Amino acid sequence: MSAMHGTLVIVERAVDGVSRHSLEVIAYAQALGDPVRVLFPGIPDQAAADLLRAMQVEALLTCAELELCDAYDDDVYVEAIVACIAALNPRHVLLPHSYTARDRAPRLAARLRVSLVSDCIAIEHDAQGYSYIRQLFQGRTLARVRVAGEGPVVVTLQAGIGRAESVARGGAAPVTACVIEPLARTARAVAEAPFRESARNVDLTRARILVAVGRGIKSAENIALARRLADLLGAELAASRAVCDEGWLPIERQVGSSGQTVAPALYIALGISGAVQHLVGMKGADTIVAINKDASAPIFDVADYGIVGDLFEVVPALIQALENP
Amino acid sequence: MKIAVCIKQVASTNGPLQLDVGAGWLREADTTFEINAADSHALEAGLAIRDRLGGEVLVVSLGPDRVTAVLRDALAKGADRAIHVVQDDAHKLDPARVAEALAEVLRDEGRDLILCGLQSDDVGHGQTGALLAECLGWPLVGIVAALEVETPQKVRARRELEAGWSQWVELPPPCVLTIQSGINKPRYAGMKGMLAAKKKPISRVEPQLAGGMRNQQVIEQIYFPHRHKQTRLIEGAPADAAAQLVALLNLRGMQ
Questions:
Q1: What is this model's ipTM?
Q2: Which of A238, B127, B175, B215 has the CA that lies 20 to 30 A from B1?
Q3: Which residues does chain B have within 8 Å of residue A304's beta carbon, measured at their own beta carbons?
Q4: Is residue B137 less than 8 Å (CB to CB) from chain A?
Q5: What is the CATH number of the domain that holds B152?
């Protein structure tokens, strides 16, 4: 087998070819400096192949065995990817830290008997080699992780790690088929077709201003306070996952990785601590205001303006200021 | 149905974090601990299935002696018995070793179903359940947001995908599921449960961690994030701060 070599990015499919998060990972991989190879889990259509080949990468790899596991067929997927990686022998295997990768990447690493460093926000290199930066305590601190021992390192990268638009292009990468032994198709989990819970009546992505509430709002009754502020500003109400889980607002108002991704002109976060799952859905807002009792809450890391205080004092004061100039 | 639920004790997510940056971990003596949020939903899911179909809920937690508190609480809520996997420096184990230790304990327990929280609120790897499935050679469904178990022979789980999409997956026991927060409303332990819990067994097991992994993760350093944005903190009494914010953002102009 050849020596460990370069970075292998395993992209994820999307309706329009390749997921945006995957493109972010390619952009990040290019910036790392090692030669980048891209593995498409199947046979890409012409548009996806053209898109990927035009990137500055060493090779675009395809795998016919993977073409058949479009559904949630992790047994086949994991088997096939393991076979591809064994043949390619990369130093790093990078994947987007998507919901699907959360199931697949650990199993992939386990079968390769190597570490998966999950949900990383950076990969760095110094005299001691590579290190991986991850968030601890829901983003309140960071950790520098080293991987001791040999073998490739599997890394999943958080959404927003790179800019999909900044992928270096102008390449004409050769397309190589990864030929692996045919796999026994003995998937144990049988998946039905994906669906969306309910028709969306609220399109938060079109709102110019969002007033978003988190667990700090404490009860369904207190939503009225946030609604009053939203009405005064002509804003839509949005919520963190915790609020929707409690049933205080419907799930169609949820912002974050499991809800909508928004980028309004103004985002006012009330009692939202700013878990990463929420931040990925709103950090693109032009102006972010955070009102929270806890000065160490990660929401203040992305806020332009912050008020450290009790929202039940600050919001009524805001309403007062807007009603009685 | 014979069910196991893996629960983790983590630093409380309410209130500021007490860190010893030099030691690379929490100042444990000053930290309040509680059950990891997603794990409490996993526990409720397990108890609800047992209440309907009969069987047994075994709860397992890995860590130092303090983790017996979450095991005792789970017993008070109705779990039948508990195993404490003793590991003093649990935070130094990488996810593969945690899964290996749990697999060692659970392999011979004859379980039909193992439930784990989706991820922990402290280190947040989100790997334990998936790696445990691999260690045992069982199928997995991750990020489960709804669950239908009508008979012990079949599990139907709705896994969450991104942006509001979902998918039902059917799989045969034995299997592992990782449970998303919000799937149910965890019950509280009543006085009767707390008294009953005192009589329920918590057994202690020391894992061997025989290994076989080619590499492993080590936290070299923890540090505070560099703020990407210069946050302008608005100070003063609420009325004063509110007035400043309205002026700074010209909020009246947006009305």
A1: 0.90
A2: B127
A3: 229, 231-232
A4: no
A5: 3.40.50.620
